[in-house]
Amino acid sequence: MGITSRLAAFVVETTYDDIPGEVVERSKEQMLNAAGIGLAGVAELEGQVITNFVQDRGGAATCTILGAPFRSTPEYAALANGTMVHALDFDENVERRANHPSNEMFPTVMALGEHLGASGRDVVAAFALGCEVSTKIGAAGDLDDQFPSITRYGWNPQPVAGVFGATAAAARLLGLDQEQLENAFGLAASQASGLAVKCSPG
User: Fold this and answer.
1) How confident is residue 200, by pLDDT bands cut at 50, 70 and 90?
2) Using CA atoms in the order 26, 27, 31, 33, what is the torsion angle rounded to 10 degrees?
3) Which residue among 62, 107, 130, 153 is least enclosed by CB atoms within 10 Å?
4) Are 126 and 116 in contact (CB under 8 A)?
């Protein structure tokens, strides 16, 4: 079984009850933290710009936009909320992984979960599994004291690994089977990118 198949099987076969209680509680804390940061980001210029952009796009009003008096489609809600969650850069960090998975996972599960009418257990499970996939992919290769090797090649781990985590989270909520998720991971791989900013020492 290849890596793609193993990842897909992990996401599809893991039940809510398989997830350790500590991980469930940490997932809830991370989602609450992301919501608070996103609400603070509403007042930032980035928040205002993305909210106006999404409002102009229109579409079926099924999903909440943080701090906004209107609703939008799942994809635009995820775009707007993800922008606001990351606007102030106060999101959590996974040590030695350089990963901030809530940026991608919270907007994904919030929008899609609301659109589908998913249960809280399903949303938490999707969030936790998405974070796990994203963090493991971001840590692929050797690890040093602070950052995974991916950063030494000029890549930003979040957009590279986050697209896989968000795909896993969305697939879980949509009820995709293993073959469908393997195909979705293939599409995600073709979209993954993100250059890191190199800072000069001193």
Assistant:
1) very low
2) 20
3) 153
4) no
Count the neighbouring beta carbons within 10 Å of the beta carbon of residue 38: 28
What is 3-191's CATH number? 1.10.4100.10
d(CA 41, CA 201): 30
Residue (of 27, 8, 193) closest to 94 by Cα position: 27
Residue 194 burial (C-beta neighbours within 10 Å; 0-12, 13-18, 19+):
middle
R_g (Cα) of the chain, nearest Å: 17
70: DSSP letter: S
Q: Please compute, for residue 195, the number of CA atoms within 13 A of its CA located in the half-sphere on the CB side.
A: 3
User: Are residues 113 and 131 in contact, defined by beta-carbon separation less than 8 angstroms?
Assistant: no
Label the pairing between strands 63-64 and 71-72.
antiparallel
**44 burial via Cβ count (<10 Å: 0-12, 13-18, 19+):** middle
pTM of full prediction above 0.85: yes
**Residue 159 pLDDT grade (very low, low, confident, very high; cuts 50, 70, 90):** confident
